[in-house]
Amino acid sequence: MSGSLFDQLKQAGLVDDKKARQVKKEKHQRLKQGRQASAVTDEAARLAAEAVREKQARDRELNQSRQTELKARAEAAALRQLIESNRISDWQGDIAHNFVDGDKIKTLYVNRATHERLGSSALRIARLDDAYALVSTAAAEKIAQRDATVLVALTSGETSMSDEDRAHYARFEVPDDLMW
Description:
It is built from five helices and four strands. The chain is of the alpha+beta class. The longest helix has about 70 residues, at about 15-85.
């Protein structure tokens, strides 16, 4: 009784050679299809896993950019609030104060006290949207810690004149009450 069940059935005459080949062929095809199906399944699983990884990476990048944008908005809002809460309110007048913003000369019309405080650097000019706000030097230091680009640069009173030129122009007195 050695041999496979199929061989035993063949010897007993219950299965002929034609039927045996057909059964063997079908078995072989099923095994082959199973391997192909598992290969296709493995490929599909790999592609699905890769798609999930790519989606997670895109989601992380998108979340990172959203977080960066939210942080920038929060910082801008805090800076805006700092400027608005520290701005000087009654500075407008009829004296022109010229200053340089970037590469353009701008003019603010201020009162005498404000003009003197701007000249002595007790006040600073800060950009606020499309306008300007005047803030104290202490507030300007806090603003500069967050973003110094919103402050208009101070013009130094020092010029690049030589000592000889200074001596020459020292002979010409300029009255203190003269407004330029």
